[in-house]
Automatic annotation (TrEMBL):
Organism: Nitrogeniibacter mangrovi
One record GO biological process: beta-glucan biosynthetic process
Subcellular location: Periplasm
Name of this chain's protein: Glucan biosynthesis protein G
Coiled coil: none
Major place of residence: periplasm
Source superkingdom: Bacteria
A GO-annotated cellular component: outer membrane-bounded periplasmic space
GO MF annotation terms: carbohydrate binding; catalytic activity
Length: 514
């Protein structure tokens, strides 16, 4: 893989971290050296916490709270602070945390008195050497006097970020290995962190992480810029220990239970339940592609070929409260995540993996970049990219968009068709359409893949809603998914992103049983 502007990212981080970082004898190169050394040795799994701590219920684990008065760097009045997360429940393998300043890197010992709990019996049983699961990076994001989490690292290589006005939603990961394969997924873990002490009025912060698993090691540098959106610049150097069939770089993970394009499960009162509603890709050619998400009956894997991908992300485009009616979870305020590679990543695939889920408690959607084929032992990958956590406008350079996708049983308006057909309705809106002259009408190019058939299509303008509505009646080939693709154009040029949708068989539209 071509090297992706690693030096430039490191330089930016140094300039923003302040004088203390310039003098620090501990640098990202030290983490890279540790990752390289580990890759040359057999994998050794981290220790696990005592069994009774692993068996804590959700509420029991939540009762163990970090004492915010002991936040790291609070005594210095820094804008950035760190709150610690204890190991326990699903966080079974503790991680090491180090603090970095001008004098070097020093381990942060675990202390029980970092945490408080209303459960006195549990508090007494906490092991003195329990360890940390991770940390929350806090910053005055929405109100000048109130620090709140902008980035949370805990569990495997997961981290969740928010921009101004957001609540926690989807997650990013350091790496995905064999996700969706029958052989089973391997979950690499960030096993150690180094947090650089920020200057008092710093607007950005930098830290490092060491990743380890059976088949790969890695060094990561994160530079965080809170705001609208919150930006996270990532530099990663990865060393492959053993062959990996599906190498997932820069993965994003989210939840889609049901939405406007699916049937609502029986008995559920909320109109929609999802943390993201679509995958957006900008290919190296400049084409924008939007693929609405779904909750399949069986594992659903799609691969979108890309060359020099300019960006991809899982977005929550629908930010209307009325779409969810959930005053607690606030899906309408959950962030989108847009990933921008730095440098040319060459040929590869954006993989979209959708996993069946019976409830909203599972992150059942994964998207990542992957090289064209397997990777082998001894390979090194250098990755540089930016993740923007915020509203759906993180893809602000996209053309007019597909803002709604509705799917139902097909009823031909011209009396033809029949069989197992689907009515698919797509709404397009955006500046490129609004700017068309009164004598310029867009046209829709609709195609069906996998042997499917487009029975009818028509495009109308909805004056009150200020959008163009494309209605499609289509039928899949026997035993094949319904695979459709469309975009609007004017004067022979595209004025919208390309909408693509694959509905596997069986599905919820016809009430199919599993």
């Amino acid at each position: 893989m071509p090297r992706a502007w690693r030096g430039a990212v490191v330089l930016v981080g140094v300039l923003l971290a302040g004088p203390a970082a310039l003098a620090a004898p501990f640098t990202f190169d030290d983490v890279v050296a540790q990752a390289r050394d580990r890759a040359a040795k057999p994998y050794s799994a981290p220790r696990e916490i005592p069994e009774f701590m692993q068996k804590l219920s959700y509420n029991e684990f939540r009762s163990i709270r970090f004492d915010a008065e002991q936040s790291l760097w609070r005594d210095a009045g820094a804008r950035f602070e760190v709150q610690l997360i204890p190991a326990g429940a699903y966080y079974r393998r503790p991680v090491k945390i180090n603090l970095v300043d001008a004098s070097g890197a020093k381990p942060l010992p675990f202390r029980k008195d970092y945490f408080v709990s209303d459960n006195d019996a549990l508090a007494r049983r906490l092991p003195a050497n329990l360890g940390f699961a991770g940390f929350k990076l806090t910053f005055p994001l929405n109100r000048r006097s109130v620090r709140e989490p902008v980035l949370t690292f805990a569990g495997a290589s997961y981290f969740r970020g928010v921009g101004k006005g957001n609540v926690l939603g989807l997650a990013a990961r350091g790496l995905a290995i064999d996700t969706g394969l029958m052989s089973g997924e391997e979950f690499p873990q960030f096993v150690e962190y180094w947090l650089e002490r920020p200057a008092r009025q710093a607007e950005a912060m930098r830290f490092y992480a060491l990743l380890d698993s059976k088949r790969v090691t890695g060094a990561y540098q994160f530079s965080v810029y809170p705001g609208a959106p919150t930006r996270v610049d990532v530099t990663a150097v990865l060393f492959v220990r053993d062959r990996i069939e599906l190498f997932g770089a820069a993965p994003l993970t989210s939840m889609f239970y049901y939405g406007e394009n699916t049937a609502r499960p029986v008995g559920h009162w909320r109109p929609e339940v999802h943390a993201s509603d679509g995958l957006l890709i900008q290919n190296g050619t400049g084409e924008w592609l939007w693929n609405p998400l779904l909750n399949p009956k069986a594992l659903h894997v799609q691969a979108f070929g890309v060359n020099g991908v300019k960006g991809f992300g899982l977005l929550q485009r629908d930010t209307r409260f009325d779409s969810y009616q959930d005053g607690e979870t606030r899906h309408d305020r959950q962030p989108s995540a847009w990933l921008t590679p730095r440098g040319d990543w060459g040929r590869g695939r954006i993989m979209l993996i959708e996993i069946p889920s019976r409830d909203a408690g599972n992150d059942n959607v994964v998207a990542f970049w992957s090289p064209p084929g397997p990777v082998t032992a001894g390979q090194r990958f250098d990755l540089d990219y930016r993740i923007s956590f915020g509203g759906p406008e993180v893809d602000h350079n996209a053309p007019a968009r597909a803002i709604n996708t509705f799917v139902g049983r097909g009823e031909p308006l011209n009396g033809e068709g029949g069989g197992r057909a689907y009515r698919v309705v797509v709404d397009f809106a955006g500046d490129a359409l609004d700017k068309l002259g009164p004598d310029t009408l867009p046209t829709a190019d609709v195609s069906a893949q996998e042997g499917g058939e487009v029975i009818e299509q028509f495009l109308t303008y909805l004056e009150d809603a200020k959008r163009w509505r494309l209605s499609i009646l289509a039928r899949p080939a026997e035993g094949k998914p319904l695979a459709l693709r469309s975009a609007l154009s004017a004067d022979g040029k595209p004025v919208t992103e390309t909408w693509t949708y694959t509905l596997p068989e069986p599905n919820t539209i016809f009430g199919d049983k599993e």
